[in-house]
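Students often ask why inverse folding is considered easier than folding. One informal answer: many sequences map to the same fold, so there is more than one right answer. In these notes we will look at a single instance of the problem. The structure comes first.
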């Protein structure tokens, strides 16, 4: 596995983890209605984490795709 493929795989793992956190928080919110400043801060942090990880994953995939495409004869 190349370094580039390793980075994409690691970004995919982070994306899966961030998605699991988001789904878990939505499950908690569907069963129980938490409120308050702490819950709002945690929701904002989870949303920011998911957004950053998603953008990083997409950027790495795009760079890998472009590099693979440019290497073809």
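Output (designed amino acids):
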């Amino acid at each position: 596995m190349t370094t580039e493929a390793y980075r994409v795989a690691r970004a995919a793992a982070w994306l899966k983890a961030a998605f699991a956190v988001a789904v878990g928080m939505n499950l908690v919110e569907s069963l129980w209605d938490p409120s308050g400043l702490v819950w709002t801060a945690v929701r904002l942090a989870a949303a920011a984490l998911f957004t950053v990880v998603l953008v990083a994953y997409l950027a790495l995939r795009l760079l890998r795709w472009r590099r693979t495409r440019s290497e073809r004869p």
